[in-house]
Design brief:
It comes from Brachybacterium phenoliresistens. By secondary structure, this protein is α+β, with helices and mostly antiparallel strands. Among the domains are: 81 residues, no CATH class; 134 residues, no CATH class; 139 residues, no CATH class. The protein contains 19 helices and 39 strands. Strands 7, 8, 9, 10, 11, 12, 17, 20, 21, 22, 25 and 26 form a twelve-stranded antiparallel sheet that branches. A nine-stranded antiparallel sheet has the order 13-14-15-16-27-24-23-18-19, covered by helices on one side. Helix 17 runs antiparallel to helix 18. The longest helix has 23 residues. The chain is globular.
């Protein structure tokens, strides 16, 4: 790293870690040609002096081979690290060289051993309990760490439960640096002799830290008709050496507090053991020798109950209850409750213990924390990702098909519920879910303040990022610029962008969009008659990335640095990348269109599994699981051999063919370009680079370029056939990330034919009928989503410096073109204010914006951001409309019709249609 390279400022996205240091991981972009190779770096606070060691690795490269993105890991915390920069480490060590205090990885007795200097972790492959030992200060404080699970053969709550045998079949060191080591464990569950539910468990160990970060992914491949999950958790056993009064349990509440208990309590008794004894037990310190206690207590201590088990059950997002009992054959005694637990438990004694926490504990309900066996020599603490006290998980499809046996029936039903149903396609097999957990090892029971900081960092892990100006200077992740409120016109648009983001943040909470499979997604369309999102109406329910809300939120964060935008986008990426995408089975590599259930729609498509929606999170965090998701779709075109997305509306004879595979030059192409570009810049993937070049060249040679609509791809030769000469328009082609990924691609690779074809598409999609007739012989039909497509005009206007075209782009964005072309209800809404709805017409009071649908919000956001960056200087003063005095009444017809027109997603493109007709992608 050149010594002249200036230090990179870093900001905490929301709050900095407390005084207890915790492991952190983040990404940094670099302008092209600035950084040749990764080199030792440090985190430094204000002023001079030594910094904190940082692991650095390359996560992407520019075409010239220079570093584009780096990933970093460090231990951060304390007041001196509230303001940080990333700077060159003057020590001169080679990357990966061991330094004093480095984490060490070795093999001993058939186990992989990781030594952080303060924690020794032993992990053994091939065992049911792969986390063999956690050792602090030479003592075992945790043993036999494992995944535990059970299931039933029916959805009935009283159905017998079968304990799973969870096998770890492989382990490898995925990353090993001076600061952090990452172990990747994989395995499966065994139920009634069947191997199901493959999983991946990553363990992150950091030098100088006794905290392990655990990231668990389970892939659902079981038959939903025969297996109903009843419990899924991470459990560790804890050796208990001290006397019963010196054994401690802590369970986190909602406001930073804890239930503070001992296995055998000596406070509140009829006789007082002494103030020093009571204070020590509450603080978790060793109590004085019992001989020094008041004899009225010490000689009667055997009469004081010793409690063996505790449970904290968060079955809903709004409430948890705590109970404890003395033995398995004794009743549970209520011990309190609250709203939203931070999801952290401690079990141990004055000689050591384990803290175990689950991130998003109350958001990913039903969840649970259990302590058991606390009276014995080996107790256990479990963080349940699916609570055993909840009803069995039921992943069967939600209706019986309603007689929709033929494509004709299914297309007819689409016209009423907007649901694209097909027997056998509403299948959960292949989806996944990822949870993040924390495992803390202690040499003794920690103080309340110490535990509170660790619980807070589990509930909301601190996250570093470079500020928007530094991100912008690196010229990464598409077309955007930092927030600019320098004119009333700009400020008006920025206010609306803020409104949309904050509206969805509020809706997540008010509508309780939480749960094991649901958290992170938002709903698609609103029903103003019921004052309710259409959670139960076919294709209008869960959004599943429709029209790119993930991309909008990430771009919003890049330019604003807003913590709310980041947390929304982070949760959405964790959800859509796992739950809405298939990872194994016949649909692997594809995602599912929006539905009442995330997996319910029969439209299985690349547009949902798109790498375009995952790249931001990967590059900003260097998250290994997200990198795995990106690798899964690196050759996702192969999935189109198994599923023809347009099978229901084809008028030609077509069967998927390796030598002539139909690729839509819209939603398919955008996803493929994103997958190939990401594989190339992350891994230097030569095949991905070849496919990028060939695709660009082929599109440039098609007589109608992007207006061809669909072209045939040879999977083996990696090229398009270029003899198709027709015009086919889809209004969805460029609203699933294609605009954004092509902006990156044309900046990286030169291809004059491709660039010309793209500019032609950008110019003519919203050209006047006369201009379209001159080019194509007739006006293009089916043009809609005009405000969204305004950013295509902006691309050409910016590249050519065409002020008149820039004005037309702004007219299109604000709905100023012909009314029949408008396709976003937001542009027709002058008064953007919330309307409070309460009373008997709603379950709970809500803030309503009936004019908002997620399609419109996402595309309004993306178009506004791109237009401000490209042609912001041409924004006309007339773009600031007068605000109405009172909140507008919801217009049910407008919301319903505009949303439906914006997203005819289940009506796919046909491969052979008359020229100049409109088709709709599925």
């Amino acid at each position: 790293m050149p010594s002249a390279l200036p230090a990179t400022p870093l900001t905490w996205i929301d709050s900095a870690p407390g005084d207890v240091p915790v492991p952190i991981q983040w990404g940094v972009p670099w302008p092209r040609g600035v950084l040749v190779e990764a080199a030792p770096m440090q985190l430094r606070g204000p002023g001079e002096g030594s910094g904190t060691d940082v692991d650095t690795w390359v996560t992407a490269r520019w075409p010239d081979g220079s570093v584009k993105w780096t990933g970093h890991a460090a231990l951060a915390g304390g007041a001196e690290q509230r303001e940080l920069v990333l700077a060159a480490d003057g020590g001169g060590d080679e990357p990966g060289a061991e330094r004093p205090g480095s984490v060490r990885v070795l093999e001993e007795d058939g186990a992989i051993v990781v030594d952080t200097g303060v924690l020794r972790l032993e992990v053994a492959p091939g065992e049911d309990a792969p986390i063999r030992r956690l050792v602090v200060d030479g003592r075992e404080v945790g043993v036999a760490g494992r995944i535990v699970a059970s299931s039933a053969a029916s959805a009935q709550p009283q159905a017998p439960r079968r304990e799973h045998t969870v096998r770890t079949t492989g382990i490898r060191v995925e990353r090993s640096g001076a600061v952090q080591a990452v172990l990747r464990l994989e395995g499966h569950h065994e139920v009634d002799g069947e191997q199901v539910l493959p999983f991946v468990l990553r363990l992150y160990a950091t030098a100088g830290s006794t905290r392990l970060r655990a990231v668990h992914t389970i892939i659902w491949d079981a038959d939903p008709e025969r297996l109903f999950l009843t419990a899924l958790g991470l459990r560790l056993q804890v050796p208990m050496r001290a006397a019963l009064p010196d054994r401690h349990v802590r369970l986190a509440g909602s406001e930073g507090g804890f239930l503070t208990e001992a296995v055998q309590g000596v406070t509140g008794l009829r006789r007082d053991p002494g103030a020093e004894v009571r204070a020590a037990q509450i603080a978790g310190r060793p109590t004085p020798p019992q001989g020094s206690w008041a004899p009225e207590v010490s000689r009667r201590l055997h009469h004081v109950p010793a409690w063996d088990a505790w449970t904290l059950r968060q079955i809903t997002a709004d409430g948890y209850g705590v109970a404890k009992r003395t033995a398995a054959d004794r009743p549970w005694i209520p011990a309190g409750g609250g709203t939203r637990s931070r999801g952290y438990a401690y079990l141990g004694d004055v000689q050591g213990g384990i803290g175990l926490g689950l991130r998003d504990f109350w958001r990913l309900v039903p969840t649970q924390l259990d302590v058991a066996g606390a009276r014995g020599d080996l107790a256990e603490v479990t963080a349940w990702m699916y609570a055993p006290s909840a009803e069995p998980m039921d992943l069967r499809f939600y209706h019986d098909g309603l007689g929709q046996e033929t494509f004709a029936d299914q297309l007819d039903a689409l016209e009423i519920t907007y649901e694209d149903y097909e027997p056998g396609f509403g299948d959960a097999r292949g989806i996944a879910r990822t949870h993040e957990l924390s495992i803390d090892a202690f040499a003794a029971t920690p103080s309340a303040d110490h535990l509170a900081e660790l619980a807070a960092a589990t509930s909301l892990p601190p996250q570093l990022c470079v500020p928007p100006s530094r991100l912008r200077a690196a010229r990464v992740l598409g077309t955007w610029d930092v927030v600019d409120r320098s004119t009333p016109q700009r400020a008006r648009i920025e206010d609306r962008l803020d409104f949309l983001r904050e509206f969805y943040r509020g809706q997540v909470e008010q509508r309780r969009w939480y749960g094991f499979w649901d958290y992170g997604d938002v709903m698609h369309t609103y029903d103003p008659d019921r004052h309710q999102w259409r959670y139960d109406v076919g294709g209008y329910a869960w959004d599943n990335s429709e029209l790119s809300p993930d991309l909008w939120l990430w771009t919003d964060f890049l330019r604003s640095g807003d913590a709310g935008a980041y947390r929304l986008a982070e949760a959405m990426t964790r959800h859509t990348g796992e739950v809405d995408q298939y990872h194994v089975g016949r649909f692997a590599g594809l995602g599912t269109r929006h539905n009442v259930q995330h997996f319910g729609c029969s439209a299985k498509q690349l547009r949902v599994s798109s790498a375009v929606y995952r790249r931001h999170f990967y590059y900003l965090t260097a998250d290994e699981r997200t990198g795995e998701l990106l690798d899964e779709v690196a050759s996702s075109e192969e999935a189109l051999l198994r599923v023809d997305a347009t099978r229901k509306v084809r008028s030609d004879v077509y069967a998927p063919d390796r030598r002539a595979l139909a690729i839509g030059l819209g939603t398919d192409l955008g996803a493929l370009l994103g997958a190939w570009l990401t594989a190339w810049e992350r891994h230097g993937d030569a095949a991905a680079h070849e496919k990028l070049r060939a695709a660009m060249s082929g599109i440039g040679r098609l007589p109608q370029g992007f207006f061809t609509g669909e072209a045939l791809w040879d999977l083996d030769a990696r090229r398009f056939a270029v003899d198709r000469d027709r015009v086919q328009v889809s209004h969805l082609a460029a609203v699933f990330g294609m605009v954004e990924i092509i902006a990156e691609l044309t900046d990286l690779l030169e291809d004059e034919g491709f660039t010309a074809a793209w500019h032609e598409y950008c110019r003519f999609y919203l050209a006047t009928p006369e201009q379209q007739t001159e080019r194509f012989g007739a006006p293009l039909q089916g043009i809609s989503l005009v405000p969204a497509y305004s950013r295509l005009l902006a691309v050409v206007a910016a590249d050519e410096g065409d002020t008149a075209l820039a004005r037309r782009a702004w007219d299109a964005f604000h709905g100023g073109l012909d009314d029949q072309l408008n396709g976003n209800s937001l542009v027709a809404q002058e008064d953007w204010r919330l309307r409070r709805i309460d009373g008997p017409g709603v379950l709970e009071p809500v803030d309503e914006a009936a004019f908002v649908s997620t399609n419109d919000a996402a595309q309004y956001g993306l178009a506004a951001i791109a237009n401000l960056a490209l042609i912001g200087d041409d924004l006309p003063e007339s773009a600031v409309p007068e605000a109405t005095a009172e909140p507008a009444e919801p217009d049910a017809a407008r919301v319903s019709d505009a949303a439906a027109e914006s997203d005819a997603a289940a009506e796919p493109e046909a491969t052979a249609v008359p020229a100049l007709t409109s088709t709709k992608e599925s």
